[in-house]
TrEMBL record:
Signal sequence region: none
InterPro entries with a match to the protein in the record: AB_hydrolase_1 (IPR000073), AB_hydrolase_fold (IPR029058), Esterase_lipase (IPR012354)
Transmembrane stretches, start-end: none
Source superkingdom: Bacteria
Protein's UniProt name: Carboxylesterase
Catalytic site: 102 (nucleophile), 204 (charge relay system), 234 (charge relay system)
GO molecular function terms listed in the Swiss-Prot or TrEMBL record: carboxylic ester hydrolase activity
Domain AB hydrolase-1 intervals: 27-243
Organism: Enteractinococcus coprophilus
Amino acid sequence: MNTKHCLEILDPHPSGSLSDTKVRWGVVLVHGFTAGPSSVLPWGRALAAAGATVIIPTLPGHATTVSDLAQTDAGQWRRQIQQTLDHTFVQGFDRLAVAGLSLGGTLALDAAAHRAVDATLLVNPALSFKPLDQLGVALSPLFQRLIPTVGPLAGDIKKAGVLEDAYDRTPVPAVAELAKLIRTVRSRLAQISSPVTLYWSSEDHVVPATSAKILRRHIDPNLLRTVVLDNSYHVATLDNDAAMIHQDSIDTLLSLSGGVHGCS
């Protein structure tokens, strides 16, 4: 199996608004299911331009081949992010945030439940499936040999002319592993004790609205803040509301480091 284990590191701009606070932020930023770092790279660049050091890992089974993803499991994804965070912790940052899109948001929540992060930033995290998808997950052990892959899950973008770099097929075994991850993360949401910002698309054709409801039900309401995205679909990091996500996440880190909010 050809699995990438690489990190893209974006250095902080010395004159960014976060740099002005003299608080050194490290941000671990995680991409979505079947996609790769490019789906969150503009977000990462915005955070780095503001003065944060941004680390974007490539999840096992991603950015290679569909068959590679079919051979990876939820434990590998979880370990990749936890190990990346552990490595980042020892780099001497004053504050540490974890952020992610879709599956990356799910893994960010998992990390926040296990590590003492200072902020969690989520774009449409996956915490549930649509009813038909849930049925497919339940039947996957029976059918995955006959139907090893299904259609793509990526590319749900409202903005015209924008494409997400992702696999054109989705391996059924990997979807079953995603379901395992979701069950694990949902059981540990109450362990999160640091601020969480949820960027939630009002129209999402991949992750159902029940995911946001689950988050609101299990996270301390004093810790959770929701920003509704009315002009983007699932991959909001590449969509019409991307600039809003960038500025609000920078403002969030500023507020947690004693800085003054920037201009939107």
